[in-house]
Amino acid sequence: MDKNSKLVDELKKMDYEPLEPAEKKLIAYSLIIGLILLIILVYISYEFFPIH
Q: Pseudo-torsion of CA 22, 27, 31, 34, nearest 10°?
């Protein structure tokens, strides 16, 4: 058996585990922080490095 088929077999054996509420909050907070930092980065780049 190759590694890929072993992985597929193990993944099929695993039970479905829903996300905990704390995990959902962490994911949401991470996405929000990332979006805010991206907006700040774009603002700074336009403010300090304007396109002529």
A: 90
